[in-house]
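Re: How this chain folds, sequence and tokenised backbone to follow
Notation: Tokens come from a learned vocabulary of local backbone shapes, not from coordinates.
Start of record: The labelled sequence and token lines come straight after this line.
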Amino acid sequence: MTEVRVPTLGESVTEATVATWFKKPGDSVAVDEMLCELETDKVTVEVPSPVAGTLADIVAGEGETVGVDALLANITEGAAGSAEAPKAAAAAAGSSAAAPAAGGDSVDVMVPTLGESVSEATVSTWFKKVGDAVAQDEMLCELETDKVSVEVPAPSAGTLANIIAGEGDTVQAGGKLAVISGGSAPAQPAAAAPQAAPAAVSASAAKDVKDGPAAEKAMAETGVSRDQVQGTGRDGRATKADVARAAAAAAAAPAATPAPTAAPRAPVPADDAAREERVKMTRLRQTIARRLKDAQNTAAILTTYNEVDMTEVMALRKEYKDQFEKKHGARLGFMSFFTKACCHALKEVPEVNAEIDGTDIVYKNFVHMGVAAGTPQGLVVPVIRDADSMSFAEIEKAIAEKGKRARDGKLSMAEMQGGTFTISNGGVYGSLMSSPILNPPQSGILGMHKIQDRPMVINGEIKIRPMMYLALSYDHRIVDGKGAVTFLVRVKEALEDPRRLLMDL
């Protein structure tokens, strides 16, 4: 009998909660196969099996709190060897039965690494069906995690012999998705005939093609109708990326979209329930909701406000934007000014660029700037690393590139991790004033707002100036009111006189 115990959870972490058991008593397990998942106040910890065998009993059930080195379960060794052999044989037999014509070796399609602390995903769309020929690196399916979408390419050429995890199924990192039988499949001549008329399929038969659940959910969330989406998947099927592109196009040309969502609501039933539409939250939306609520429950969030006269920044941008774009190939926007101003202020008030770790304060001697971006799937925060050492042009290029990848759903996990401070621009949507919520474990977030002409008293005279309200939400556990106000004042000073940025004043 081998004991399964709670592993080391990290510095200053002494206990965890058993979140999920992936095996039950009597199940056979392999060495290093994931048995359960533990949640601490900082990270999620996976517990692998130390030996091959059979899970004899579970000592700590789901929801229980356990300490470091506490007993989780017991495994009887040896039984898994005989149990796993017939399973492997059955799998091999199933693979060969699914593709008898191939005659070659079978290749498993596995769930790729999903990113730090992400252990599972949902199969959103299969772009191939059993029996289809596939080329190496051709996209087979799309997985949706609580943070990003992950495309799964074919590891080899052949025929898709078996789909193990269907659309809507939840899969674990490293789990098996499908089986490809290798060898002769790619050279099928029959595949050439349907390829001849892809436009006809997408134009005439799109209504008969079942879109993937991820695309359907995205259409429901964004209000984009199926007629607005140009499907690029198999047989004209719409993908989530197609919906994102359609939503972005609709937002860019609001005058061209005559409110298509109002038409289907013409017949109004008397019963309120019949008029409601219930749509399951995406994993991304669930995570956004959970993280924002956790931030409110954990941090002592306080917001302080100021306003900035944008006259000088707007004049500088107007004077040099054409030369800037010609030389650097990037548009000169306001975000680079705000990023530079924040980096400048964070040097003077480092606690706004710090985080709390247990009873320690961790000061960051660098600025990884998170730039909040709204997408059809929800709010994401790509990170511009070492923004404090970047030029205006480098910042603008990085923000443009990250923003495009965010809208297309192509951001990787690594691109959204490690931020030390965040800027959120609600002004692009017309927001005049708001209180942003912290992006944990960060201690500060700056909210930008709409630029609006207002009468201001300048040297005893009333003048019209383009003004913007600024809002700094901060964790009052680490940042005092004086520090928060000082930070905002430094940002205001840098923007009202941009020359201060050049002189580091």
